[in-house]
Amino acid sequence: MTNGSYNFRKPFSMDNENIWFVSQLVCPVVLRSKIMGEDVRLCRCSSHSIPHVTDLEFDFLINNQITWPEQITVICVYDSAMVEDGTLQDIEELYSRKNRTRNMPCIQSRLDPFRLLKYNISGADEFTDHIGSLLVSRHNVASGMFLMYIQGKLLFANYVFNGYSTSAKDLQKQIVKTRNDYHLGYYLPNDFRFRNQKPKRTVNGHWCRCSAAQFVRGVSGKSKPFL
To answer: Which of 1, 53, 60, 112 is the most exposed place for a label (fewest CB within 10 A)?
Structure first.
């Protein structure tokens, strides 16, 4: 099955799968409800607004990927307590275009080259017994950052895609670069942390970036804060 420049291998047959079972593994809303003992059985996420992921289901969703094996999960970090700056507008529009004919976008996007999820720093801990954002504690992320994962491995963390912008075009270019890093065995350490929370430019005007290619293959041990 081909979509643009990507070739896909179907991980399992729609004829044989249990849609409810798949929903609770790929949809953050259904998974969250299952963990909380509620009876939400099917993905009913909006086809126009990127679904939210919270701390309660974050690690399970990232680490137990049953979608296309090389699908990239893009986490769009924002803070609802801050004034919207339009950073996610182009990405939201891309999500809407990708899913405009879908009534269960989380399930129907399982063969896409990437999927988009939003992470609200101010409310991510709402359904947990801890206080404060998991990703702030783990990586010192800040509003406006984007993280990219494949099979639980963090391969990219930055304020911009492709070193330039938050446009859908640069996102597509970054997807290609991030998947290449994955094929080369590059990924960021589990203890990777940003040193500060403000984007900076290099002397030539490009944005600083942090991707897996900046680390040696199969990194282990403590990592130094970046930026």
So the answer is: 1
Residue predicted with more confidence, 33 or 85: 33
Query: Which domains, from first to last, does the chain contain?
Result: 45-214 (3.40.30.10)
Q: Quick check: 17 pLDDT over 60?
A: no
Q: Give the span between the Cα atoms of 5 and 18, in whole angstroms.
A: 30
**145-166 pLDDT, tens per residue?**
999 999 999 999 999 998 889 9
Q: What is the mean pLDDT of the chain?
A: 81
Tell which residue, 209, 207, 203, has the closest CA to residue 226.
209
d(CA 155, CA 176): 12
User: What value does the mean pLDDT take over residues 105-128?
Assistant: 94
User: What does the pLDDT look like over 22-53, one tens digit per residue?
Assistant: 777 899 999 999 999 998 888 999 999 999 99
Q: How many CB atoms lie within 10 A of CB 223?
A: 14
DSSP assignment of the chain equals -EETTEE---SS-TTTS-HHHHHHHH-HHHHHHHHTT----S----SSSPPB--HHHHHHHHHS--SSTTPEEEEEEE-TTS---STTHHHHHHHHHHHTT-SSHHHHTTTSSEEEEEEETTTTTTTSSS-S-HHHHHH---TT-EEEEETTEEEEEESSBTTTBS-HHHHHHHHHHHHHHHHTT----TT--BS-SS--B-TTSPBP-EEGGGS-TT--S----B-
